[in-house]
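Tutorial, part two.
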Amino acid sequence: PEIFAIHGEDYFRAQELKALRRCLAEHPRAVLATGGGLVASPEAYRLLMEQTRTVWLKATPGEHWSRVVKQGDLRPMQNRPHAMAELKRRLQERDPLYRQAQLQLSTSRRPVPALVDAIASWAGG
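Running the prediction step on this input gives:
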């Protein structure tokens, strides 16, 4: 949140891309959890699609909202009376990109261990 507040989204996305490149170069066999906005960067998304096996952990807008709040990140709603509508629009815009993931799992009412088992089984271990 501090990077967004001080430098803005463009700077954040540039740093995110730099971190992604470094991670892929230094850790060819790792689990990498990215933010949902990474797909908005064509270069970052291209790198993911070319160099990794991708998983989309699907959630409803309400679930996204509650998870972000539980993490203590109030950015999505600060001074934004229509934040939920914006979130729904953003998820809808990104949906075609998310659907390109090799594995798609709904997280609704599924415990984390079950999701981990499904991903590990799909990934072969």
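Residues 9-26 form the longest helix (18 residues). In part three we will examine how such features are distributed along the chain.
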